[in-house]
Amino acid sequence: MAQPTRYIDITTDYGFKRIFGSEANKDLLISFLNELFCGRKVIQDLYYNKNEHVGETDDIGAVIFDLTCTSIDGSQFIIEVQRTPQRNLKRRMLYYGSKLIADQAPKGGRKGWNYAISEVYVIVLMDGFPMPGRDGSEDFLHDICLSKRGSGEVFYEDLGFIYIEPRRALSFH
User: Fold this and answer.
1) Is the pTM of this model over 0.90?
2) Distance between CA atoms of residues 157 and 144, nearest Å
3) Fewer beta carbons under 10 A from the terminal one: N or C of the chain?
C-alpha cells in the first residue's frame, strides 16, 4: 500500500514559517520574493529579524509580525499570512509598514540621519477571501506603491505592498 502524500499548507502560520522562516530554507524565501518582484528588485541574501516590535510606551503595546527579514541592500520585508477576512486589513498593513519605517529613526541625532530610510515591503498572503475593496477583476496579485492619483506615475517606490489571493491551495511536498 502506498504511503499517503503529506503536504504543508503555506497559508497557515505554522506551514509558512516551516517552509520560509528558517535559515535552512532561506533560498526558498529568496526565490519566492524574487518571483513577486518580477525582476524589478533582485534579492541575493536575507537576514531574519525579530518579529516582535515593542511600542514606545506601555499603552501602545507590541506589534508581532509573522515573519520579517532584511536583504543585503537594507530592504526590509514583512510577510503576513491571513486566513480570515480582516475589517481593517489595508490599514493594519499600512501601520505595520509604517512601524518598520519609524523604527529606523535614531533615538537622538536625527539631524545627521537625514531620513535615510531603507525600502520597506509588506507582503500579505490571503487565503479564502478577496482583496478588500477589490474592483471585481480576476487579478490575484496586487502590487501597490505610492503613486500620483491622476497619472498613476510612481511617486515613491520604496514603500510597497503586495497582496496575494491564492486561487487554489498552495502547498509543497
Assistant:
1) no
2) 9
3) N
